[in-house]
Task: structure prediction
Amino acid sequence: MKTPVTVLGLGAMGTALARTFLAAGHPTTVWNRTPGRSPELDDLGVARARTAGDAITSSPLVVVCLLDDASVRSTVEPVAPELARRTLVNLTNGTPEQARRTADWAAQQGAQYPDGGIMAVPAMIGGPASFILYSGSVETFEQHRDDLAVLGRPTYAGSDPGLAALQDLALLSAMYGMFGGVAHALAMVSSEKLSPTAFTDVLLVPWLTAMLGSVTRMAKDLEYGAAPGQAGSNLAMQAGAFGNFIDASEAQGVDPLLLRPIRSLLDRAIVEGHGDEGLAVLVRLLAKN
Ligand code: FVH
Result:
């Protein structure tokens, strides 16, 4: 028999997690603060618990996916004794410090605690592009790897419980940087009534795809060091062109507020003598220690 699983939280993501566990044959118990959410799960054979405590005692593996850290704590702390000898997997978005604090707390309750970061939207759960970061005890990760694999590729992030959250937030930061750049680009082309979909399909997506090579280059230069004077697109050149992005945006009636911090960083790199280097320098300028 497949491992019985409890899912605490039936928001968009918790519902997708519960649906996927059910589809994979796991006896699945759910609890949600507001009862009766996601009625479609009833036809799939879900068991609904009246309280969070009842839900936890139904399964050795408890997955919690709520809005934020505060909602997790207010849900599990009152039922702490029920968690002893169970595994609590926290897939709620949070900070590394929150993960470490909850890991310490869970250990005091006698629970195993992998902290996780879901790298998927609900529709992707259970599909080939979904992966989920986990940190904490590697033994606990291995014990439940197969159970958790039905949700997305389980990816071990390290024994420090904060490392899944750290990498989750780093990945989301990169994603929002891209979304911010895309929002600015679409505002620029929309200022001339160009078709956003044509621009995106024909130009933007191929351009961003081609630029992924520069992302890899940045990481390599950061890790291994770049050969001096070998940057094909050095920062002095980039800073020179960057003013045009801002001037053109203002002339088109587009607020360049998302571009200005990047310009400041480029300017700082030039002032500090990095004009002939590449983008990896920006990482060093951002890191405070
Ligand atoms: N949806 C997504 O695209 C992303 C993908 C990556 C991971 N995130 C994180 O997953 C967490 C849950 O996200 P969600 O999409 O399920 O969020 P909602 O649909 O808004 O559901 C929120 C659930 O949290 C419950 N809840 C809120 N406050 C409390 C509380 N104080 N006590 C107990 N439960 C609480 C809420 O219950 P209810 O409003 O129905 O009673 C929902 O079950 C999140 O960390 C994302 O960042 C999702």
